[in-house]
């Protein structure tokens, strides 16, 4: 949460002589920040007090903001009766968001009521206590008390830093990642599918300069999405067969400036926290924010927002084209790979920027890696996809690309590269279960997304409506050519970019050390944990696997008279040919060439014929055992033959990412994706269920 202590009413009274009341002027409200309190020595100097603004005498101003907010919520497909959560830090942005959300929920014809305890129905404020400072717990409680005064129920969620406190140079990045993970978990727990975040137009401007200094293209310069789906990496929150729909992030304040945040708090008499770390030049965003504050002319601000808006239109157009191409030219196979039809795609007719984004979406889906594909890799992929017919193979971004069999180079096979250590991830999970039913959210989110799409569909763009499709020219240079920005704004943006690049290079060595550390952690192999019967594992971020043993009589050669001691528990018996017992686990790994050879050998294994069995003079019990063994062998041969037939339809490159189960001795037990199992009593389930859907889920940049 924001660093700062909101003073209680009593504390405010004792320090009122130190408190500055803000009178916000229209043009430059952002310069009128609260003064630091001179508190007693026992109070931490890192704490900032909150600002207390007098209530405005003109209610028209706050009414206009509320109407604008309601329109944005409708654009997102949201209605007051929908259950939503709000990310609350205690700063002016999130407090203004709480004020506007409370009004949206309780005002108008579709207003919702309050529960018996006085809280507004269907809204939850989530306060994340990062636990990085001793006073953070106290501050979180005080922020929660201020939010509950608005009628918003609150929950304080604490972060668990399992790997220790993040390093100072990367504190903001790791704290942000942890914060959104906490948001996701709390929303899932309360079955809330929409999260409001208080990002605003000034945040977009900061991100624009930051990404410009990192050489981002037009898609990155579009900034944060108005709405976007975020998918949980914690599959234990979902039951087998349920769908990971994630949550919808909505940023309804992107069209409003920081100045408006202060005004909303002022008009409603709401206190807020000022974070002292926002003044630290250690962090890139703070440096950029301060620099932008020195360039606060109306012309500069409006033209920067004009460039961002143009980038967002281009991003919306590119996303629209990519979605159409995916629907037309891509086939997803449940065995975990994709096929791109080059003839339908017709890459010669697709612009570089759209084609690069299209290929990146396919590779990110197949590999389930959320990292962007940039630089030389992106250029090589673009060249590869434009070479028709496809004749060579290519490995990039955790994927293996090659011509699809029998396609004569008109189709490209995209499968997961098992040579990448990150792609062999095995996560043992315990699915969340509510009573007798597994966690499975209603379809409210799907309806919200559909309503939001119906609104954005009214703004279908044509190539003539967007700019910056030519990647050869820089965005700001083209913006100047198109008169979106003037010469003065152009120079100021270049200066901001240059200054941030200089700071970035100074920290390059520290950045390399950080990446090196992360790399070591990501590829370090830990001993494989066995999957126990009835438990579930999530393999390669895509396959949901579980197994158990059914009822089967054991046929153990080592037992006396050739018959196992049943022990009165026939319902728990299993065939010794499974090579596994109820008290042992199975290892999950990728399929190898030796598994294919093993199946081929099994399929040709001769079974005992009746004439051979009749020549053997044995007792009746031994005959029964022999018959059972013969029956099992026949079933095993039949299973191997059927599996081979299925495997023939799967390209060789794609077979390597199929999951297989083996026992502790390495004996092949099952290849569940193709139906092979070593014993009829072995019950294995394998469902292809990637975390992030094809295309990355819904997003809108309107």
From TrEMBL:
Keywords: ATP-binding, Ligase, Nucleotide-binding, tRNA processing
Lineage: Eukaryota, Viridiplantae, Streptophyta, Embryophyta, Tracheophyta
Pfam families: ATP_bind_3
Native species: Salix dunnii
Domain tRNA(Ile)-lysidine/2-thiocytidine synthase N-terminal positions: 84-290
Any GO MF annotation of the entry: tRNA(Ile)-lysidine synthase activity
InterPro entries: Rossmann-like_a/b/a_fold, TilS/TtcA_N, tRNA_Ile_lys_synt, tRNA_Ile_lys_synt_N
Protein name: tRNA(Ile)-lysidine synthetase
Position of the signal peptide: none
């Amino acid at each position: 949460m924001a660093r700062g202590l909101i003073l209680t009413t009593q504390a405010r009274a004792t320090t009122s002589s130190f408190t500055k009341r803000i009178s916000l002027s229209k043009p430059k409200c952002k310069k009128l920040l609260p003064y630091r309190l001179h508190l007693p020595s026992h109070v931490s100097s890192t704490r900032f007090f909150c600002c207390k603004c007098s209530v405005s005498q003109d209610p028209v101003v706050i009414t206009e903001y509320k109407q604008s907010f309601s329109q944005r919520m409708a654009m997102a497909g949201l209605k007051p009766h929908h259950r939503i959560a709000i990310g609350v830090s205690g700063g002016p942005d999130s407090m203004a968001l709480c004020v506007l959300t409370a009004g949206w929920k309780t005002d108008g014809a579709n207003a919702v009521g309050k529960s018996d305890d006085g809280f507004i129905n269907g809204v939850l404020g989530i306060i994340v206590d990062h636990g990085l400072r001793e006073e953070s717990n106290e501050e979180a409680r005080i922020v929660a008390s201020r939010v509950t005064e608005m009628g918003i129920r609150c929950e304080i969620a604490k972060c668990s830093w399992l790997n220790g406190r993040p390093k100072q140079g990367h504190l903001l990045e790791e704290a942000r990642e942890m914060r959104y993970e906490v948001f996701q978990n709390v929303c899932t727990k309360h079955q809330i599918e929409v999260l409001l975040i208080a990002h605003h137009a000034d945040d977009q401007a900061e991100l624009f300069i930051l990404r410009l200094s990192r050489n981002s293209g037009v898609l990155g310069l579009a900034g944060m999405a108005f709405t976007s789906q975020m998918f949980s990496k914690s599959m234990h929150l979902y039951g087998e067969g349920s769908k990971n729909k994630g949550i919808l992030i909505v940023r309804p304040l992107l069209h409003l400036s920081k100045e408006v945040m202060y005004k909303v708090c002022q008009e409603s008499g709401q206190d807020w926290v000022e974070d002292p770390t926002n003044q630290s030049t250690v962090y890139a965003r703070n440096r950029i924010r301060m620099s932008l504050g020195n360039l606060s002319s109306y012309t500069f601000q409006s033209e920067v927002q004009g460039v961002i808006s143009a980038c967002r239109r281009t991003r919306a157009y590119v996303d629209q084209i990519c979605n159409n191409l995916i629907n037309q030219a891509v086939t997803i196979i449940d065995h975990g790979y994709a096929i791109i039809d080059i003839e339908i795609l017709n890459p010669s007719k697709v612009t570089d920027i759209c084609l690069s984004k299209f290929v990146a979406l396919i590779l990110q889906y197949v590999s389930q890696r959320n990292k962007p594909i940039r630089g030389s890799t992106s250029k090589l992929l673009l060249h590869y996809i434009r070479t028709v017919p496809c004749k060579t193979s290519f490995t990039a971004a955790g994927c293996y690309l090659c011509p699809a069999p029998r396609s004569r180079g008109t189709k490209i096979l995209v499968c997961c590269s098992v040579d990448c250590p990150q792609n062999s991830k095995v996560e043992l999970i315990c699915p969340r279960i509510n009573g007798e039913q597994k966690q499975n959210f209603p379809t409210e989110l799907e309806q919200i997304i559909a309503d939001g799409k119906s609104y954005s569909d009214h703004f279908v763009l044509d190539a003539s409506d967007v700019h910056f499709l030519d990647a050869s020219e820089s965005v700001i240079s083209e913006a100047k050519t198109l008169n979106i920005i003037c010469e003065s704004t152009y120079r100021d943006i270049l200066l901001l970019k240059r200054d941030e690049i200089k700071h970035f290079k100074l920290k390059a060595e520290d950045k390399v050390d950080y990446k090196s550390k992360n790399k070591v952690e990501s590829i370090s192999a830990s001993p494989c944990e066995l999957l126990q019967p009835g438990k579930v594992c999530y393999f390669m971020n895509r396959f949901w696997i579980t197994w158990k043993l059914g009822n089967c009589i054991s046929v153990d050669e080592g037992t006396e008279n050739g018959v196992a001691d049943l022990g009165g528990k026939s319902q728990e018996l299993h065939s010794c040919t499974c090579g596994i017992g109820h008290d042992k686990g199975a290892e999950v790994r990728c399929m190898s060439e030796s598994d294919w050879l093993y199946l081929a050998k099994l399929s040709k294994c001769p079974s005992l014929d009746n004439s051979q069995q009749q020549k053997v003079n044995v007792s009746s019990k031994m005959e029964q055992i022999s018959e059972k063994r013969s029956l099992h062998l026949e079933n095993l041969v039949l299973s191997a033959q059927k599996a081979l037939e299925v495997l023939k339809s799967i390209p060789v490159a794609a077979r390597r990412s199929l999951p297989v189960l083996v026992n502790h001795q390495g004996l092949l037990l099952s290849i569940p994706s193709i139906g092979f199992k070593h014993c009829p009593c072995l019950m294995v389930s394998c469902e292809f269920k990637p975390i992030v859907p094809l295309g990355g889920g819904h997003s809108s940049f309107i």
